Structure formats: C-alpha cells, structure tokens
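User: My collaborator and I are trying to settle a disagreement about how two of our proteins should look. Neither of us wants to argue from intuition anymore, so we agreed to look at predicted structures for both before our next call. Could you fold the first one, then the second, and keep them clearly separated?

Assistant: That sounds like a sensible way to settle it. I'll keep them separate. The first protein:
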Amino acid sequence: MYRIVVGEPGEYGNRLAGYLETHIREPVRILRFTQPEVFAQCEESADIYILDEMFAGALFGGEVPVDREKLIYITEKESGEDYCRYQLPGRLLEMIEERLAAPETGKSASKAAQKVCGLFSPVFEPALREIAMTCMEPGDLYLGMEDIGSAEKSSNMSDLCYYIRLREERIMQRLKEMARQEQGLFYVESPDFYLDLLELTPEDYRWFFSKLKKESVFSHVYVGLGCVAAGNRELRSFLNRIILLDSRGNGRQHSFCERMERFLSNAGNDSFKGECSRIWREDVFHESSG
C-alpha cells in the first residue's frame, strides 16, 4: 500500500485528500496534516508528499528534507513540476501516478522517452496526417482529432470517444483494433464531426491520455489537432510538443501562428509546458510563397 502525505492548513487540503482517496487506482493511505509542527513530529515516511508552499516554508524555510522526486508543492502559480491549486485535480492525479509507476517497472527512462506531439494548422489542412507521418517511425501512432474527418467509412476517433466516455478498461486494446496500419505506422482517422470531441470532459481526456502514456502501447504518439482540440486546455497539458503549420503566403495564418507560439511559450499562460515550434507549409509541399 502506498502512503501519501497532504500538508495544507485549510479546507482545500481536506477536499484534495478526499479526491485522491476515491480516484487513485492503487491501494493508498492518505495522511492529512493541517499543522506543520504536527507533520514534523510524524516519523512515518511516505511515497509522495503534497505540501502547500507556505505550509512547508513555515516549518522548513522552503527546504523540505525529502527527495524532490517524492515532493509536489501546492502553488499559487502554474509551474512544470508542481501543482497549482487552480488546476483541475486530475492534473495532480496524473503527477502522482507517474511517480508511483516509475519505481515499480524499473523502466522510468523508457517511459520518459515516450512523447505526445500535437500538429496544428489553424487553416484546415487535408494532408495533416500525411505531414505527421513523415516525422513518424515504425511503432508510432497518429490520432486524428481534427474538426473534419475523412470520407472513408471505417473506425475513427468517434468510435474511440465512445469507449473513452464509457471508461472502457480495455481502451488500449480497442485502440489497437481500430487503428489502421501503413508501413509500420498506426493511425486513427479524425471523427466525422467535431462534436464528438466536445462531448469529452476534461476528466475524460485526463483518463485517456494517462492510460495512453502509462501503458506505452505505442512508441510515440502524434495528435492531429483541429481548432476544437487545440483549444482544449486539458488536452494541451498532456502534449510534450506542439508543431504549428505556418504559411508565408497566408497572412492570417501566419499572424495566428505567431500569436499562438507566443502564448504557448509563456510558461505562466497555459497548462501546456512543452516545446512549441513552427514549420512552413510552403517548405513541406515545396511550394512558392509568391
């Protein structure tokens, strides 16, 4: 059984502890502290420490005598390795599960190598999947989450959304069954209609992408983003990288990409903490911008 310490002086800590008790899948014991001096007297060690910054500062001056890998601060502002109290609690759950999973497999370096990369064009690009597949290697997966899907009558992201909403425990098996394969690359087409993506709740996205990262069925994952998916804050938090498809010949597209890159690159703006870059449509298709 895992042990998790929650150190926070107010009702927020009580709600957080209650949420973790009902949502962590592993057997867990939550130790709740509201007073720093009581926490200091506790001799029982824990696997994860979730401590309010002021709570920790009052007792340790900000230097908590535990391994940093076991420590998650509750902060007022978003940061890469800690949890902001204004984020959805599912984000904290993901952080905890990642830390608990690493030592039991002995393959933390392998899991860390798995990346989820989003590719986004603010102007609908029918060849978005083909562009992504030029970056992919055998064993990689492309998930279509564009606003407009293919005319092909086959399984697509709409079907996967159905199983995500059901919390299908065999979701990775379902995904492998519906994914099409081309030269060792796997892909699932975008939904017929973007409303299927809007029906997924933030908790749905958290559940699915946590499973996708934890089970590591595919080497790397590329997500073709439409405007609906790219605008989803919870989804963006799971992306390690976002590639924007810019254009030298389309002034509106170029202006949008410039603004979005600035927004995503500002660490205080968004849930996205990865790398953002741009590629030029004219270079991809060997076109002249004039």
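The second protein, kept apart from the first:
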Amino acid sequence: MSDVTRRISRWKAKFSPDIAAQTTSRIFADMTERYEAAVVALSSMETQTKQVLDASGIDTMYIVFYLDFARQLFRLSHGRSISGPTLAREAQVLLEKWQSRGLRPDVLAAIRTDVFNVPAREP
C-alpha cells in the first residue's frame, strides 16, 4: 500500500471543483430530462398502486408497505435490462419477501400484474 500523503496528493491533483462543475454543466440538461421522466413514471406507478389497494380494501395503515413493495419492483423494472422470465422470477422473490412480512399475496400479485404487467413466474 502506498503512502497516505502520496494518495491524498494524487487525489487532489485529479479532482478539481472546476472540472466537476464543467462536467456537470455539460450534462445538466440531460440529467434534468431523465430525472423528470423518472419522477413522472414513479408518480404514475404510485397512483396506479393506490388504485389497486383501494379496490382491494387495504387498511390505510398498510398502504406504505405495499407502496414499498411497488417501489422495489419499479426499481427492478424501470430503466433496467431485465425483463421476461428473469423479471418474473425477481418479482416473485419480492412478492414472497413481502408476503413473509404479513402482506396479502393476492394484493401483491395484483400490483405485480396490474401495475407492472409482469406475469406470474413459470414453475
């Protein structure tokens, strides 16, 4: 392992607030567009999930847990390259995780299929 002071001096030589500001200013417009699109998609997903929960008669106290399940599934499916059987398998793992925490499996499955259009995993 190299000397600590040498590591620090090399890092200071590589990193410059001016360079970081220039890089950020070049990509800021693209970052903003991608962030806005992600927030719109997330908000839409949460609204659809709340509609499923409302139709299922879920008590208000448990809504946050179902939304956490939906957000985790959103993270898996949004902007990632996994889909098809792999996504179905990962969604099933999430469903079982939240079912073991006391949530209703029929409601979790409804969120998975109605909101995310992910079919049940093939046996």
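Some points you might bring to the call about the second protein. The radius of gyration is 21 Å. Residues 95 and 108 are 6 Å apart (CA to CA).
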